[in-house]
């Protein structure tokens, strides 16, 4: 049976890549967004994230949260939107997979320092990293949801090439053999769909970097 997945904010750059990857693998994909569908998703529901109901997300094997907010006044939406989606799938078998950020990855074995707290982390991205980290912290408190938070590498390239290869990491910033922390949106989508298809992670954060 083909897996049924929903992608929230499917019209965003990450959402589009994930939809394309999932459809290419034979998944039954329903996209949710506020604008006209221009993605590979076979089905589309034009609806604001905060207007979604339990009924909208019922029956899916997985729900992918590809929502993003980037302006100062909208940054708190990372937490409120994620908690809303968590409420909608709470107590069900539906897995909630979150397109996360890299700033909350740890750079030490003791897990005391986040990437966003290191000297070379760009100041412009610190508010976003903080907001996404706070959303992850709230998600960690949820024992009623089958969630997986997937952080990309530090250099997350929207137009990067698809290689189909990646290294799976955990809570810590992982470098590839070339000493880089980089991944394309296309390869991130491969990792996301792999996790939906055959992954066994639950209630944990994983991370991916180009192999």
Could you spell the SSE succession in H and E letters?
A: EHEEEHEHEEEEHE
Basic shape = globular
Classification by helices and strands? alpha/beta
Assess the beta-strand content as a share of residues: 15-25%
What strand order characterises the main sheet? Answer: 3-2-1-4-5-6-10-8
The total strand number stands at: 10
According to CATH, what is the class?
Answer: Alpha Beta
* Structural domain tally: 1
Round the mean pLDDT to the nearest integer and report it. Answer: 96
Radius of gyration: 16 Å
**The CATH superfamily title:** NAD(P)-binding Rossmann-like Domain
Largest pleated sheet: 8 strands, mixed
- Runs in which pLDDT lies below 50 for 5 or more consecutive residues are none
In the CATH scheme, what's the topology name?
A: Rossmann fold
Q: Could you estimate the helical fraction of the residues in percent?
A: 25-40%
* CATH architecture assignment name: 3-Layer(aba) Sandwich
């Amino acid at each position: 049976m083909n897996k049924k997945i929903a992608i929230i904010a499917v019209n965003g750059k990450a959402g589009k890549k994930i939809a394309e990857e999932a459809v290419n693998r034979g998944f039954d994909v329903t996209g949710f967004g506020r604008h006209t569908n221009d993605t590979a998703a076979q089905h589309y529901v034009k609806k604001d994230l905060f207007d979604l109901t339990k009924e909208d997300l019922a029956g899916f094997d997985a729900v992918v949260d590809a929502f993003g907010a980037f302006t100062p006044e909208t940054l708190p939406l990372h937490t409120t939107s994620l908690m809303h989606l968590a409420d909608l799938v709470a107590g069900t078998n539906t897995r909630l997979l979150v397109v996360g950020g890299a700033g909350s990855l740890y750079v030490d074995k003791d897990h005391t320092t986040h990437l966003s707290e290191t000297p070379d982390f760009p100041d412009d991205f610190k508010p976003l990293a903080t907001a996404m980290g706070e959303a992850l912290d709230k998600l960690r408190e949820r024992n009623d949801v089958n969630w997986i938070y997937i952080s990309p590498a530090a250099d997350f390239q929207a137009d990067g090439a698809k290689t189909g290869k990646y290294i799976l990491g955990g809570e810590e910033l992982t470098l590839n053999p070339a000493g880089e922390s980089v991944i394309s949106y296309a390869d991130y989508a491969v990792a996301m769909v792999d996790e939906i298809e055959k992954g066994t992670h639950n209630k944990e954060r994983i991370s991916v970097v180009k192999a």
